[in-house]
Design a protein that fits this description.
CATH class: Alpha Beta
Structural class: alpha+beta
Radius of gyration: 28 Å
Strand content: 15-25%
Order of helices and strands: EEEHEHEHH
CATH topology: Double Stranded RNA Binding Domain
Shape: elongated
CATH architecture: 2-Layer Sandwich
Strand order of the largest sheet: 3-4-5
Number of helices: 4
Amino acid sequence: MIHISARASIPEQELEWQFIRSGGAGGQNVNKVSTAAQLIFDIRASSLPEAYKQRLLKRSDHRITPGGKIVIKCQETRSQLTNRERALEQFIALVRSAGITPKKRIPTRPTLGAKRRRLEGKKKRGSIKSARGKVDLD
């Protein structure tokens, strides 16, 4: 059981793991051993609370497919176990971030002093620009 928060947890059976060959440096190890870990999680078919599902599906993250699956690939190290742990950490961080409700913005108004300062600055700038005009010597 993977604990996300006090109200949300995910059974490990809902995670699908695939191990594929890594790219990059590593010599013969890269050509022989499947060390890259790929975690696949179906958001819609999961046991997550509905609020988490909706926030995850609305999110524009490159790791979330249009079909509603989270795909996290990790190939940072030459160890399959370490890559698996790091992919799981990234997954937990992503799902936890969906559990945070964004604060509602309360619109504020500019103060009277701020309005006055802004208008004075505009007048000053305008007078500087109007002084740049052609000089009539007649």
